[in-house]
Amino acid sequence: MKNTLQYMGNVLKQWKAYCPKKVHIYIMLMPCVASQCTAYTPFSPEKIMIPHMEKRIQKISREISVRKNRSYPHMSPITRKLYPKLMIPYMKVEHEYDKGFYTNEKCLGCAVCSKVCPTQNITMQGNRPVWHHRCHGCMACVAYCPTKAIPSYEELGTIISKRLCLPEKRKRYHNPFIQATDLMQDRRCIHVKKIEVAK
What is the spatial distance between Cα 136 and Cα 96, in angstroms, rounded to a whole number? Predict the structure, then answer.
């Protein structure tokens, strides 16, 4: 299951190419609230999207339980045309996403931002977070900061930062059913599995 941006990013097609031929194939597009809060106000309203997502999950569960096969939806002609113009340039500079992040006096040094980051891109130095430019733009650090201590986006003259901002009143959205501790636990599990594979 992938969201709309990843679908436009062609990841479903890539995933299927690496999938073993004899495995049970089930791929469905999962709509969600678009939450790149440094680029735009999150949309569509969660009151509409979350019930829709829950219904989609129920459908997915039923179909997987009976081992229904479902191949990935192909990109539309419009998406295929926009892909090289929008997604390829974005992916080339994606790591710049965090270059404008900083914290203000509201920062508590709690390290929540560091602990929820799925790419381990944030470390704490002098009781403040430091971003290391391995960002994938998930916005977890911004959305889960308990004091909104990542207040805005510094203009750095880079391709991405020229277009981004984070006004104080803009909502830092995250799924209300997913807490910061859930992301921390997921990251610990992934880290342990990586160590086991390395051994």
Answer: 9
For residue 165, the enclosing domain spans 4-198
Interval 125-134 mean pLDDT: 93
Please state the rounded mean pLDDT for residues 122-137. Answer: 92
Could you give the CA distance from residue 59 to residue 13 in angstroms, rounded to a whole number?
A: 22
Query: What is the distance between the alpha carbons of residues 135 and 152, in angstroms, rounded to a whole number?
Result: 17
Whether residue 91 is predicted with pLDDT greater than 90 in this model: the reply is: no
Residue 155's φ and ψ, nearest 5 degrees, are -80, 115
Cβ neighbors of 92 (< 8 A, separation 6 or more) are none
Q: How many domains does the chain have?
A: 1
Do residues 15 and 73 lie in contact, with contact meaning Cβ atoms separated by under 8 Å? no
